[in-house]
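Researcher: Here's my situation. A collaborator sent me these components and asked whether they could plausibly form a single complex. I don't have experimental data yet, so a predicted model of the whole assembly would be a useful starting point for our discussion.
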Amino acid sequence: MSSPVDDLLPLSATDLHVLLVLCGGALYGYAILQGVVEESDSRLRPDLGALYRGLARLTRAGLVREVEPPTNPPPSPGRPRRYYGITTLGRRVVEQELARLQSVLDLASTRLSVGNETR
Amino acid sequence: MTGPKKGSMPRWLRLLGPILLLLLPREFRRRYGDDLLLAIDDWRRDRRARGWLPYPLLVVVLLIKTGLAERARPTVPVSGYQAPVITAGRRDVVDIFLQDLKFAWRKLWKQPAFSSLAVLTLAVGVGVNAAVFGILDAVVLQPLPYPEPENLIQMRRTEAADPGKLKSLSQLDVEDIARDAESLESLVGYQTTSVTWIAPDGSPEVVRAGALTSGLLEVFRLAPVEGRDLTSSDNLPTGPRVVVVSQRFADSHLDAAEPAVGSTLRLDGEAFEVVGVAPREFHFPRGAQLWTPLFNDTEGCGRGCRMLTGVGRIAAGHNPEAVAEELGVLSSRMEQSYPEDNLGTAFHARDLQTGLLGGVDRSLRLLMGSVFLVLLIAASNLAGLQMARTSSRRTEFSVRSALGAARGRICLLVLLETLLLGLGGGVIGFLLGVLAMRIVLWVAPSGMPSFEGVGLDSRVFLFSLVVALSSALLLALWPAWRLAARTIGSGVRATGDRTEIRARNWLLVVEVALCLGLLVGAGLLLRTYHGLLEADLGFDPQGLSSFMVALPDKGYDVPEKVISFADRLEAELGSIPGVVDVGSALGRPFSGNTIGTSFRFMDEPEPLPGASPSSRIRIVTHGYLDTLRIPLHSGRDLSPVDRQGAQPVLLVNEEFVRRFSPARDPIGREVEIDIGFGLEELPRTIVGIVGDTLTESITDGVEPELFIPQAQMAVPWLSVVLRTERESPWTEIAAAVQRVDPHLPLRNKETLVEAIDEARGPTRFYLVLMSGFSAIAVFLAAIGLYGVVSHMVTRRSREIAIRMALGAASGRVVRQVLAEGMKTVGFGIALGLVIAVLGTRLLESMLFGVEPLDPLVLAFGVLGLISVSLLALLVPAYRAGRVSATVALKEN
């Protein structure tokens, strides 16, 4: 069996952003959505259904888990929200993914600068 | 928006949310459902804070989408750590669905007879519904195309003596109410007219116009494209002549190089200055392209001179009830202030759209009801077909279920097949609807209001699809479920067969009953139409042609000129070869414009104000009665000696005598009439009694009429009537008019046969449609009957074969099959008679000369159904008589 981390790569853009948002600390559903929209410059706008399906998937893969709410959560009406945090495996997957992306980036910049010179 | 409940979830989400969550697969719902709803609430609040409205619909869509997606690619149970597999198995719901869809399609394709019959049956039902819905939608359901149409009202008045009839308003009434009513933002009195526009090259053209007390655009919340709207200050009899034209008229009639506003139009011989241009789409009332002030002299034409309809807008903060209440107060106040004219008069406002439709909506709704019955019949047929088919597929499903197919899966298959049939039926039905609507509009009489703009649009398409799919699905659910339930038990011949035959028989009973209802409806309309054709008009319309001229004030300012015009015109027309008689009248029969007048007998005490008797009045030349062949019953006819200066005379009709002078011979009695128009009137002597004629409508019966010689009361509007021996010689007629006055156009050219035919138009329209619908219904029911009995014969061929082998004569078998089929038909007819008794009352207002429960119509309906049923039964019955014992026994 190959390393579990390799099986999970590449991450979808939304998954990566969700994980990145959670790297900053555990959050509740809508806050994660807002984080993803904000940090992706509104390029990613998953709807809430897609977000929760993503969370379910990531939870199942062991990258995300439900955590205790912070001691002083931001005021939100109604019942308390559930908080989702990133797991150690999740962090490793993000790191691996970023490394992978970095190598893609390196490759691309070499290729493109070469291409520019020959033109 | 900060309500007190800001903190908690809004009620709709609290109620709707948990239900919508059921769309999600169970595991996912348990794990994330609650939290998802909370997040949706967060999202909702966030959007609201940013000023966007969070539509509940968005939430519904979101959850449906999520549910479908999650079902298609489920994330397997979430409890416990498992090897991370992000993509689920490929064999998911979508694949199953597609596979079954393909399978269903193949199944249907392989049974073209069944499929096409089912699709066509449904399509016919959907098609007629789409056509009628399209009309109903465009004419009745769609609001008028103006801002806030629900606040537009039409105003009329009633008189205490005749409270059921809505009547016209006078200019003074309108002005008073417009000034005093606080619940009305605006009120305009209008009259639909036509004016003669003289093109720069001198050719006349009649243009539809509205004569108004003030500008209409404000009422409809429209802005003039250029210039200004009319105002009440334009409406002075002596004021400058101004006109507002529509953009359409300006584009097609005016010089494009010059601005429309400020240009001059010649209308009815006078120069009008264009002061404004109305939007292109605006053509109220009834296709008007020009709007002028009334310029009425209210001095001469007072409060009793009533020719206007009111149109207005309810003021902000008021509602129709407030308007009604205030009008009640104003009515009684005006009764007190002007008892002479307003005693017993009450003003009424109603929704403008309702007012414009004038009862057509009711008839259209009835039509919609009858096509819905057609749909029910089609759907019952489809249900019968499906049942027969599913029962014959029992073995197939038994095998599938034995191989492990779940009941739901088998149901899904049947549902998908039905869905495909429904889809086909919907699309073909829409296309049939296109055709049907063409036909409907083609037979629609010109008198029906606002059928322009009727067309098949996306709404009608959606309607067709929804109707087709929902009826298909509703009908499929039951057999599908039953079938699945049954197949799981046994693959042998089913026990439910008899239940099914019974169910199909009941469907047939309903079909036959609905058919009878429709047939009776059509029969009643047929008798009504026949009654209209046979009605005694009181004159002979064959060979009569008629046109109207309106003499402009200019050139015809004194009565002598009008009278001499009529004399010369009739002389010119009489010299045309083939013209037998010529006469003229203000308001010939079926012209849509007759006027009424109040009068009193000079030998009776003056009646109380508001209690004067009234009669229709026709101002006629002396040739008129002869031309129409209206018989003279006693006294003398009008003659050329009845001129100005001679003794003022008039004729009355028999109804007048019956109503107002039953005990005394009216000849010689003197009558004073009050016609308005500012015409001064001397008492007139009755010199003759003529036969009754129907005036405006065949159904309204005869009314009292007065005939006054035109030479003694010159009015500048003449309906000329000619009796000719050949086709109406319009060219010669036009030439003759030109010889007398080159600038007069002929208006309302038509033959009286046409005019009367138009009056029968609406009845003929509904008759043709109802007949068409009931023919379709009978046809569908016949197919259904044929199908059920054929199926029964096939199913029982073994039994029949045994009986015949044991010596039963084939004639007896045939009779038995016929008898069984007819038993169903008999039940249907019995139920149908009940439907007819209950349903024909709705038709009552459309009938004439026939009772809703006409025994003849009922008998013909029943007989017709029985004969069609027998025809439909003959083939299967004959087949039953020819069952070959060996073949039948071998098959089974």
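Model: Some features of this prediction you could bring to your collaborator: The two ends of chain A are 46 Å apart (CA to CA). Chain A has a mean pLDDT of 83.
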